[in-house]
Amino acid sequence: MAIRLLEGTYPSELAALLGVRLYTVQSILTSLEREAVIASRLMGRTRMVSLNPRYFAHAELSALLWKLGENDTTLQSKLAARRRRPRRAGKPGLL
């Protein structure tokens, strides 16, 4: 659901958002990619994942995940609080 709501994310962001270990997220993503439900691509050294637009039920799955995500207020608030880009190293900010 988070992948659909974010419309593209990376494994460590999903792990932090959902409060699970990175290895767990990577294992699940690998399994979903093997089944062609999600697609991943490298952007530099970061593996970005999103729903696979070539998946046979992409439209239906996307609509279902969007509908489920609309009613999950906890996930919505976590998504709203997330930074979409990493901070530059050494940049002063809030602690």
From TrEMBL:
**Protein name (record):** ArsR family transcriptional regulator
Show the InterPro entries listed in the entry: WH_DNA-bd_sf
Q: Where is the composition biased (Basic residues)?
A: 80-95
Residues covered by region (Disordered) = 76-95
**Top-level taxon in the UniProt lineage:** Bacteria
